[in-house]
Amino acid sequence: MQQTNEVNWQAIREDFPILREQIHGKPLIYFDSAATSQKPCAVLGALQHYYEHDNANVHRGLHGLSTRATEAYEAARAKVAKYLNAPNVDEITFTRGTTESINLVANTWGVKFLREGDVILLTEMEHHSNLVPWQLLAERTGARLRFVPVQEDGTLALGALDSLLTPEVKLFAFTHISNSLGTINPVADLCSAARAVGAVSLVDAAQSAGHLPVDVQAMGCDFLALSGHKMCAPTGIGALYGRAELLEAMPPWHGGGEMILSVQFERSTFKKAPGKFEAGTPNIAGAVGLGAAIDYLENIGRAAIFEHDTKLATYAHRRLEELPGVRVLGPQERGGLVGFVMEAAHPHDLTTYADQYGLALRGGHHCTQPLMRKLGLPGTTRASFYFYNTMEEIDRMMEILENAVRFFA
Amino acid sequence: MNSELEELYQQVILDHSRRPRNVGEIADGAVHVHGDNPSCGDEIHLHVKFGADGGIEDLKFTGQGCAISQASASLMTLKVKGKSRADAGAMLSAFHDLVTTEVSDPPKSLGDLRLLQGVRKFPQRVKCAMLAWRALEQAMEAGDKEEHVSTESA
Questions:
Q1: pLDDT beyond 70 at A56
Q2: Touching check for A370 and chain B: CB below 8 Å?
Q3: Does residue A391 form part of some domain?
Q4: Is A20 a member of any domain?
Q5: CA dihedral in degrees (A324, A326, A331, A336; nearest 10)?
Q6: pLDDT at residue number A2
Q7: What's residue B38's pLDDT?
Q8: Residue that is last in its domain, among A245, A279, A298
Q9: Measured between CA atoms, how close is B129 to chain A, in angstroms?
Q10: CATH number for A72
Q11: How close B34 gets to chain A, by Cα (Å)?
Q12: Does B65 touch chain A if contact means CB atoms closer than 8 Å?
């Protein structure tokens, strides 16, 4: 990991105008960045600049403005490639987000290569976005789903991997950081275990890409999916990294303009990746925004961000465990979020209560219904942090939660 | 203390959520409806026994969920037990108005259910308050003994 710089975290808050908002007359404490992050002025400015100076359609206009728009769009792709340490810029496809990236793989690679009897290996901690697309694919192809169990402490039962990773496994898809438990999975080990049985690996980096250094070559993954909006970029933009060799073998998904080489009435030929996966006018401004977000995050440094986020999460974990009737889920070593249950109050009552004091928490199943069922919980309350959050905000959260215990008990 | 929270979570409501009344199942001759609120995981199993005259002779529920959904279910069972279908239906619609619109003078027939009026300031919690009532509605319409009702349309 790179050396972390001294960062003035308090000054960074000034980059986020929304943090000055009041909710129900109280200063906003935004602890829901795992759902979506807030956007710094640098990103908001990049969007405005793009629309004021560079806006045109990409890849086909012969006029100067279209050239500018195309350059801005492709520069953003190059930034994503560099950010993920992808060997080749063509290995980055822009999508609407993690969900679409995973669906793209399921509907192209999956449909072409999976057969009846093949196995898709997942884990029990997957977000619905890394579960439902595979259920649909299994239904379509006759492949079966198999799951790496989650243990009591919120980590994966890695001891079970040997027996689960049989030769029928063609794909192993797993999350880098669990959005409900905070668990950081040993992704490089999981990728190499998949490779050992000839399975393709897919990493759901929705919760990690904006929070810690993510290097697809060091990980050794075949696919990696991310969402821009969880890493300071606008909603509606994300990316899929795929190894060139795999992308080449994959058929297109959506058909339309932009993705073709030549079209006849009866048939068409398609561009190479990533062009063949980007039908229609793409989210150009979104990509520019993602590029700006990457510049912004890199300027702070992902190692420093990770250190800051985990410091907050570790502190919150410790403080929450001091509260009577509160149980924190997931391991001590965690990403920047804490999920917990409180005996006195259901997650929805607790989040309604917190909201009245300006504290934005998330209550519910966090799109991990099967995991919640397995843990025997109707849901949890989650506080998720980002680099613009502070220890003082956690102290304030604890005051609010202490009052909530008294209120509901 | 925050007044909207005090209004939403009145002592009677918190009491019913902690110690809900009419919890259980009715083994014989009852219509069983499973209701859930998939967006938040609230769940109810409502058993309604209709009398020979078609009225609600008895009803019990089990379930899990937030204070609002549990208290609403508990208060509902107390209120509609022994009522005709017509009266229960009228109560359902009065209760829906209570939690969704500005009713300055809610009908006295709702009794303690009027304490749930605070829900109207929390639109995202209306589903919680309505879950048991949707299950009751389903039970009254049901020909079958097993029904499923969801706050989200399939």
A1: yes
A2: no
A3: yes
A4: yes
A5: -110
A6: 47
A7: 79
A8: A298
A9: 12
A10: 3.40.640.10
A11: 16
A12: yes
The verdict on A224 and A335 lying in the same domain is: no
B9 touches chain A (CB under 8 A): yes
Per residue in A108-124, pLDDT (tens digit) is 999 999 999 999 999 99
Mean pLDDT across chain A:
96
| CATH number where A365 lies | 3.90.1150.10
Nearest CB to A364; choose among B14, B41, B68: B41
Q: Which of B39, B64, B67 sits opposite A349 (nearest CB)?
A: B67
B41 vs A: CB within 8 A: yes
**pLDDT of A242 strictly over 70:** yes
Res B147: pLDDT: 64
- Say what the pLDDT of residue A258 is: 86
SS3 of B6-40: the string is HHHCCHHHHHHHHCCCCECCCCCCCEEEEEEECCC
- Disruptive mutation site among B17, B66, B125, B150 for chain A (greatest number of A CBs within 10 Å): B66
- The total of structural domains in chain B comes to 1
Three-state SS string over chain B comes to CCHHHHHHCCHHHHHHHHCCCCECCCCCCCEEEEEEECCCCEEEEEEEEECCCCCEEEEEEEEECCHHHHHHHHHHHHHHCCCCHHHHHHHHHHHHHHHHCCCCCCCHHHHHHHHHHHHHHCHHHHHHHHHHHHHHHHHHHCCCCEEEEECCCC
The verdict on a CB contact (< 8 Å) between B40 and A357 is: no
Mean pLDDT value of segment B95-100: 95
- Count A/B contacts: CB-CB distance under 8 Å: 49
Residue B154's pLDDT band (cuts 50, 70, 90):
very low
Look up A367 and say whether it is catalytic.
yes
Q: Is the pLDDT of residue A345 over 70?
A: yes
How do residues B19-61 score in pLDDT, each as one tens digit? 999 999 998 889 999 999 877 778 999 999 999 999 999 999 9
Q: Is A13 exposed, middle or buried (0-12, 13-18, 19+ CB in 10 A)?
A: middle
A392: β partners: none
pLDDT at residue B145 tops 70: no
pTM of the model: 0.93
Q: Structurally, how many domains does chain A consist of?
A: 2
Domain boundary among A298, A327, A343: A298
Task: Give the domain range for residue A85.
Answer: 44-298
Using CB atoms, pick whichever of A346, A352, A378 lies closest to residue B122.
A352
